[in-house]
Amino acid sequence: MTAPLAQMQPHALFVNTSRSGLIAPGALEAEIAKGQLHAAVDLFDHEPLLDRESILLTNPNVLATPHIVFVTEDEFNMQFSSI
C-alpha cells in the first residue's frame, strides 16, 4: 500500500488500528516525512516500537498510541487491578 498513501489528499488523516502489514514497510514513514500526511496509529511493524527516533514517535503530525485499541475499560481494570 505505497501508491494509495501517496494519492491521499494533502494533510489527510490516515488511521490504522488494524494491521501494520496493510502498509508496505516504510511507506507510511516516507509519506509523513514529506509533510503531506497526518497519521494515527496504534500498531507498528515491530512491537514494541523501540526506536525512540522513529518518525512515528517524533513527528507532530502523528498520534501514536499503544496497541490497546481492543481493550475495554472493564477488561483493563480486571487485567491490571492487581498491579
Describe this structure in words.
The chain has one domain (3-80): NAD(P)-binding Rossmann-like Domain (Rossmann fold). The protein contains four helices and three strands, in the order αβαβαβα. The chain has helices at 3-6, 27-33, 55-58, 73-80; strands at 12-16, 37-41, 62-64. Strands 1-2-3 form a three-stranded parallel sheet. The chain is elongated, with a radius of gyration of 14 Å. The model has no long low-confidence stretch (mean pLDDT 85).
Summarize, please.
With 83 residues, the protein is an alpha/beta fold. Helices cover 28% and strands 16% of the residues.
CATH architecture: 3-Layer(aba) Sandwich
Task: Provide the β-strand percentage band.
Answer: 15-25%
CATH class: Alpha Beta
If you compute it from the alpha carbons, what radius of gyration comes out, rounded to the nearest whole angstrom? 14 Å
Offer a few descriptive terms.
83 residues, alpha/beta, three-stranded parallel beta sheet, 3 strands, single chain, Rossmann fold, 28% helix
Topology:
Blueprint (H helix, E strand, L loop, with lengths): L2 H4 L5 E5 L10 H7 L3 E5 L13 H4 L3 E3 L8 H8 L3
